[in-house]
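note to self: dont lose this again. the chain is below, predicted strucutre after it. 72 aa total, dont forget to put it in the shared folder this time
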Amino acid sequence: MCLGTIGEIDRVWDEGGVPMASAASDHVCLLYVPDAGVGDLVLVHMGFALEVLDAETAETAMQLRSELSRRD
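---
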């Protein structure tokens, strides 16, 4: 199973008409969330930012992921 990561956008740029960002230590495509900007928390999967998350949702997701990883 593949899980997305949550990252904070720290840089945004245009790459040949494609909005891109640096988040979660990776370059990610912003085509699905073109209004995302620096400081936004995004759910990233397979190189695409899929959703902009509010701080509470991001924190809950990170806590759940941490709990799941301790069950192994």
